[in-house]
Amino acid sequence: MEPIQWSRWMSVGIDDLDEDHRVLIAIVNKLSDDANRHDPAVIEAILDELIAYTRHHFAAEEACMMRSNYPTFTAHKALHDALTRQVEAYRDGFVANRDATTGEEVFDFCAEWLGRHILKEDTRFGEYAGNGAALVSANMAG
């Protein structure tokens, strides 16, 4: 199973957010390892790690959007909330019936979930931030 490869098409142009996206990809890519995909306890731990880091990332991204007066912030936050619930429900379903879901299916779900959000939603914010992206990134720490 091939891991997800970062590409410039995934970049939102804000260094802190791009780094978070790389970390999220690295977490999902742990499922590209054969041994990890065949160990339900490891799959569950990876899903838990993904959920925890996703919460961290979404909070940082939302703060950045608010500082930028992103016009579709409310809709984007609602999407974040729905995505978090979706991956939590997926994890809960996996835990409830580990034998029904393969590691490959979990990898495919996570890759699709993450890729769709970064490529379709987060890149829109990157386009909006445009020339102000460096300022937005610099303000994320403060």
From TrEMBL:
The Hemerythrin-like domain, residue ranges: 13-125
Keywords: Iron, Metal-binding, Oxygen transport, Transport
GO MF term set: metal ion binding; oxygen carrier activity
Family annotation (Gene3D superfamilies): Hemerythrin-like
Highest taxon of source: Bacteria
Similarity field: Belongs to the hemerythrin family.
Protein name per UniProt: Hemerythrin-like domain-containing protein
